[in-house]
Structure formats: structure tokens, C-alpha cells
Automatic annotation (TrEMBL):
Residues 2-57 form the HTH deoR-type domain. Coiled coil: none annotated. InterPro entries: CBASS_pafABC_assoc_protein (IPR051534), DeoR_HTH (IPR001034), HTH_11 (IPR013196), PafC-like (IPR028349), Tscrpt_reg_HTH_DeoR_CS (IPR018356), WCX_dom (IPR057727), WH-like_DNA-bd_sf (IPR036388), WH_DNA-bd_sf (IPR036390). It holds the Pfam family HTH_11. SUPFAM superfamilies: Winged helix' DNA-binding domain. GO terms for molecular function: DNA binding; DNA-binding transcription factor activity. This is YafY family transcriptional regulator.
Length: 319
């Protein structure tokens, strides 16, 4: 385990140039004291590693030093193959480059590893898209991608719900959630997220910008996603439903089961959270006679009114 960790430290420093003890400890899931002991071990083994002090300091390898200990295990190659986000790479125009790089990696591997990787490829395919695949078009993605890579400001026109808005932003990164692309950008000191399919116009400017030193795209996305979920509207209700619905309700994105208890004759009572009154009524109607709204009264009355309208509609001959 220690040998693997020392190799990981070498590769991390070789790829990133400089990392602090805290950053290394987080990536390797060890304590900072362990990192310091590992640095002493590397130094004792003749690796030219040193520490730079200061707020922007960290551990570095001597300039020009490169390690050739980059051999990958069969498990690592299989994981790389299975993790390939091929649809998103295609959007970025990088599918061919990834395929070529992966084939070079496999070709440089031992024969047993090559056979193993091919064995997995033939038997396992991961499709990251949902059944309700988005048909969003992102013709401006290439322009935005170029601005992100070059670190140049971007002038764009964004379609909000009520109006078109012109912005000059500092593009920090791209995020693909399933097949939907987002731009994360800094605007007047604030970091915001834009759905790329809603961009009407985009133009890369000649002006560059200074990227925030402490910005981490993955951490920002995780935090903003959690905040978005926490800020979603909540509409509490009590319902009665047949027990055979339980697996479906546990997977339902827009109904949160808070508490369930057995009722009688195969029925369950539950405290749930919908998002709004309107969505609660729409979802409950979709489950037909297998779900009954107990409370609140306004939702139950809304259900009664909708059911009466349906009865009127279907009681007459179709026009």
C-alpha cells in the first residue's frame, strides 16, 4: 500500500507541478503527517523532491525530473474504458482522440491485460443517458469550449424565462449532466451556471482573465447541486397507496417518502413531500385508484375537481 501511495504522489506531482500537503492528503485519503513521512521516504530514495513555502507553496519535483513508473494495471485500464463518457466526448469533438489514446494505452500493455480489456469491452457497455434522452442542440459548444481552454472572456446572449440577457463572462469550466451541457462562469465576482442550450449567441473575446486560484469545478458543482435540491419547493401531504406502488414511489424523482406505515388490506399510509400543489395533483392523478390523497384539504379538493372534469369529458361521445 505504501509503495502504491508513493507512486501516486510521484504521478500527482508530475502531472500537477505543485500540491500542498493538505491537497495530497485529501487525494490519497491519508493524514498530512503521513504525507510528510512519505516525502521523507521519497527524498531518502533519491527522488529530487522539495517544499516551497508561502501561501502558494507546496511540494514539487525538481524541474526536468520525470518518472517512467507509469504502468497501469489491468483493473485501471478496464476502469478507464468503462468510465469513458463517449457521448460527451463526441459533443466536444474529442471522441476520435480518446479512442486513439486508449488504443495506444492498450497496445503498450502486456498481452494478458490487452485480452482482459477486450474481454470486458465485449461484455459490458455503460450507457449514461436516461430513457428520456434530451434532444437539446448545443451549436455554440465549440465556441464556449475554446474560450474555456484559452482562458478568454466570452460575450454571450442568454435566454432567461422572461427575457434575453447580454453578458460578458469569464468561463471557468464545462459540466455535462447526462446529455445536458452547462457553462460555469464568473460574472462580476459571482460564479453562475448557464444551460448552454439556452445561449442564443456566443463570441470569444481577446481579453483574458485571472482564474480564481481556489476554484475547483467538481466541488463547485457538487455544492451548487446540493443547494439547488435544498431550495426546491416542498409541499407536504398525507397519502394512502397500495403497497405494490412502493418500489415505484421510492424511485419517483418528484415525490419524497418521509414516513410510511401499514394500513390494511395491502395498503400503506405515508407522509410525503411533493414540490407544488399543481405537481402533487398531476402526479397523484397518474396513479389512478391506487393512490388516495388524505390531506391537505386543498389538494384533496383539487383532486375531486379534476376527477369530476375527467368524468364530464369522458361521459360524452368523442367529438
Amino acid at each position: 500500500m505504501k509503495a502504491e501511495r508513493l507512486l501516486s504522489i510521484l504521478l500527482l506531482l508530475q502531472n500537477h507541478g505543485r500540491l500542498s500537503s493538505r491537497q495530497l492528503a485529501e487525494r490519497l485519503e491519508v493524514s498530512e503527517r503521513t504525507v510528510h513521512r512519505d516525502m521523507e521516504a521519497l527524498s531518502a530514495a533519491g527522488i529530487p523532491i522539495y517544499a516551497e513555502r508561502g501561501s502558494a507553496g507546496g511540494w514539487c519535483l525538481a524541474e526536468g525530473f520525470r518518472t517512467n513508473l507509469t504502468g497501469m494495471t489491468g483493473e485501471e485500464i478496464r476502469a478507464l474504458h468503462l468510465a469513458a463518457p463517449l457521448a460527451q466526448l463526441g459533443d466536444l469533438g474529442m471522441r476520435g482522440a480518446f479512442d486513439a489514446a486508449f488504443q495506444k494505452l492498450v497496445a503498450a500493455s502486456p498481452t494478458a491485460v490487452r485480452r482482459d480489456a477486450e474481454h470486458v469491452r465485449e461484455r459490458l457497455h455503460i450507457d449514461g443517458a436516461g430513457w428520456h434522452q434530451s434532444d437539446e442542440e448545443v451549436p455554440l459548444l465549440t465556441i464556449i469550449q475554446d474560450a474555456v481552454w484559452a482562458g478568454r472572456k466570452l460575450a454571450m446572449t442568454y435566454q432567461r424565462e422572461d427575457a434575453l440577457v447580454d453578458r460578458v463572462v469569464e468561463p471557468l469550466g464545462l459540466v455535462a449532466k447526462r446529455s445536458v451541457w452547462y457553462l460555469v462562469a464568473q460574472v462580476e465576482g459571482d460564479i453562475r451556471t448557464y444551460r448552454i442550450s439556452r445561449l442564443m449567441h456566443a463570441q470569444q473575446l481577446d481579453e483574458t482573465f485571472i482564474r480564481p486560484a481556489d476554484f475547483d469545478l467538481a466541488s463547485f458543482w457538487d455544492t451548487s447541486t446540493a443547494q439547488f435540491k435544498a431550495n426546491l419547493p416542498a409541499y407536504p401531504a398525507a397519502v394512502r397507496f397500495h403497497e405494490k406502488l412502493l418500489p415505484r414511489l421510492q424511485q419517483e424523482r418528484y415525490i419524497k417518502l418521509i414516513h410510511t406505515a401499514p394500513a390494511e388490506n395491502g395498503w400503506l399510509l405515508a407522509q410525503v413531500q411533493f414540490h407544488t400543489l399543481e405537481s402533487a395533483c398531476e402526479l397523484a392523478l397518474g396513479y389512478g385508484a391506487q393512490m388516495e390523497i388524505i390531506e391537505p384539504l386543498e389538494l384533496r379538493q383539487r383532486m375531486i375537481a379534476e376527477i369530476a372534469s375527467l368524468h364530464t369529458l369522458y361521459a360524452s361521445e368523442p367529438s
